[in-house]
Amino acid sequence: MQLISVFPLMSKSAHAENAQEFPIQADDGAPVQNFRIPSELDPAILPGIVWNGRESADVILYEFFDYNCAFCRKAAHEIEAIRVKDSDLRLGLINNAILSIGSIQAAKVQQAILKLRGPQVAYDFHVRMFATHGQSNGASAIGIARDMGLDVRKVEETADSSVVTDVLSRQTQLAANLGMSMTPSFVIAGIGILGWPGVKALQSIIANSSKCDHPVCGDKN
Fold first, then answer.
1. How far apart are CA 144 and CA 67, in angstroms?
2. Between the chain's N and C termini, which has fewer beta carbons within 10 Å?
C-alpha cells in the first residue's frame, strides 16, 4: 500500500482555547471543552462518512477518530453499546488520522471498504479494528478485511486511489479547521466537544440533545 500522506495544513480553529459553550463535565468531574460549530463547517457536507443507525433518528452524533487512539478504542466500545440500546441515535464516523502513517493506512482501507461494500460492512470493519490490540496500520487493516472475506486485491487497489486520498484529506482538513486537536472529538446538536467525556457524560449529552436540541438543557449558564 502506498504511503500517501494526508496530514492537513493546520488552520485557524473555529473556537477559542478552553472554550466552554455549555457547562459540560466529564465523568471525572473535569470541564469538557465545547464550542458552537459554524454552519459552513457542518460535518454533514463531508464525503466518506461511515453511517450507522436509521436516517430518521432524532440525534446525530459525529465522531472524529484515529485508529491508533487509545481513547477512541474505549469510545468505540461504549458508543456501540449506547447505539444498540438507542434507536434514536445515528452515528457518523469521520477519520481524523493524525497520529501516524499507520493511522492513515487503516483509514484508507476503511474508505475502500465503504466505497466497495457500503456503510454496514465499513462499520463492521471499524468495530473489528478497535476490537484488536496493537498498532493499527495497513497490514493489520488488510488482515481484518481478509478475515471478513473481502477481496483484498480490490480493497488495496481502491485504498490507493486518488479518490480515497482526497476524501481523507477533506475529512482531516475539516477536523483541523474545527480545532479538533484531540481524538476522539465529537459534534452533536451543532456543538463540538473535545476529547472523550466518558460514557455517562456522553449518555447525558445524547439524552439532552434529544430532549432540547442542546447538550445541556435549561440555562446553560
1. 13
2. C
The pLDDT, as a whole number, for residue 192 is 97
pTM for this one?
Answer: 0.91
Q: Is 58 exposed, middle or buried, given 0-12, 13-18 or 19+ CB atoms closer than 10 A?
A: middle
- Nine-digit cell string for 151: 477481496
- Please list, residue by residue across 121-149, b when 16 or more beta carbons sit within 10 angstroms of its beta carbon and e when fewer do: bbbebbeebbeeeeebbbebbbebbeeee
Given this model, what pLDDT does residue 219 score?
61
Residue spans of the chain under pLDDT 70: 1-18, 219-221
Residue 134 sits at φ, ψ, to 5 deg, of 95, 180
Residue 100: which region, alpha, beta or left (left: phi > 0; alpha: psi -120 to 50)?
beta
In 44-178, which ranges are continuous DSSP H helix?
70-85, 101-117, 119-131, 138-147, 152-159, 162-178
Q: Report residue 143 as a C-alpha cell.
A: 488482515
H or E element in which residue 199 lies? helix 199-212
